[in-house]
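Q: How would the structure tokens look for this protein?
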Amino acid sequence: MAKVYLAEDMRGNELVALKVLYPQFGEDLSFIQRFNREAKLASTLTDPHIVRVLDYGADRDLHYLVMEYVEGKDLHDELQEQGRFEWRYALEIIDQLATALEHAHAHGVVHRDIKPQNMMLNDSGLLKVLDFGIARMPALPSLTQSGFIGSPYYASPEQAMGEEVDIRSDIYSAGVVLYELLSGNIPFDAKSPWSIISQHITSQPPPIVLEDGELPEHVQNLLNRMLEKRPEERFQNPTVLRQALAAVLSGQPLPEGIDIGEFVAGADSVPMVESLFERASHAIGTKEWMRAVDLLSQAAKLDPDNQEIADRLALVEAEARLSSLYKSGKRAMDNGRLEEAINHFNVIIELQPDYKDAQALLDQCHQMLKEENTQQFVATRYQEGVAHFETQRWDSAIAAFSEVKQLDPNYEQVNHLLRQAKNFSNPPFLQKVVNAFNEPGSGTVLRWGAVFVGLLLIIVIGFAIFGTGTQVSGDGNEAVRERLKNLYAEAQSAIETGNIELAVAKLDEILSEDPDYADAAALKRD
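A: Here is the predicted structure in token form.
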């Protein structure tokens, strides 16, 4: 139906999951209307156990859904890796699922496709339910005229028969998930989807046989209640299911009747409160802060005057917020979103200055951001210098390359280009003479005057050379100068093409014959 991409929200600077419908679905007007209605409804769900829908819409013919990105793995992969779950842990997972369904039920939403593949476990062990994008309000007319929405392995009997469904259908699907967690297998399987659906309608699940003995009776009774064929014989809503889970985890058996709500209301709440508090303490020990908040909140509802629970809840809520900020800051830092990371770490330090290594990470982010900004400045100034160089604005080029060299002395070809710009900006005397002679606006007198001065300089240099007794053959000296000139040109060409090894070899050859030749020594040092 859709393809999911990992994307970055440029407005919030955070990673998101982008679900894009396949183009053929965009041609179905009724489907798109349902998609938009349900996406709008799903965007109102804010429980921590539900993957948030952040945005939805269309770009031309592509319809999309932007969702919270969850790092972790789905429950199906977890089952494949470790096999069946210990029954207490399985009930804890279902309790988290029931929490999500409870929130959805309060907003009039039915999921319709509860299965392990739509349940994510993040790094902290927190369960998050995906794909509320195919959920819908029960009050709407039927939105699927052919078949049903969902997986046949987890479909309720009423869903399999194409009837209207409510939250009790999700409770049945949650029961199938619980069966799989406890046994390691799905209750019904066949080659044909319709054969699987038929079993959901008419057959009882096979008994769960464990290697280390049978399931506790109260666990089996809870599972049977969730998997009742008739909706009115199941737990009637997720709140009642959560009460039943709390009772079973506290060691209390379920009543024989179906009205678990009346049973819980009339039962002694002390064992349940103690069980919730114990489970919350275990979650605190494993730093599952959001889970601890959830369990302590349940305990506080049952025993609102218990100050110890209220105090522990306040502390755990603070830890949950710090943990969430810290993980968000680390994730932003790892993905190079330094300003976002700085914001998260600043909030942490305001709340608790000595929290983990938040201060060190904040300092590191500031340093990384400074270096990043410096590198951006260096790259920009270098490109500006190159542009000035190419248009022969030597002073501007020198200024730009000088700044680059000061911040990063080895940046690309900055040393070579700076030296060349300085040479062109202040050429040798003879070159100035030639430049003056070729200057388009210079007059005839000025040009010939420059020639005269140049010739005079040559004569003076000649007398100086011959006056020292230097005897050099004219032809031989000219040949040497020409060869050194060619070697120098080859060295410069090698530098421009990045062949530093060849350039050094050429410069060494020049310096072996004439240590003072031009700026060969300086060029080699650079």
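The beta strands are 2-9, 14-21, 53-59, 62-68, 72-74, 119-122, 127-129.

The chain has a mean pLDDT of 82.

Upvote if useful.
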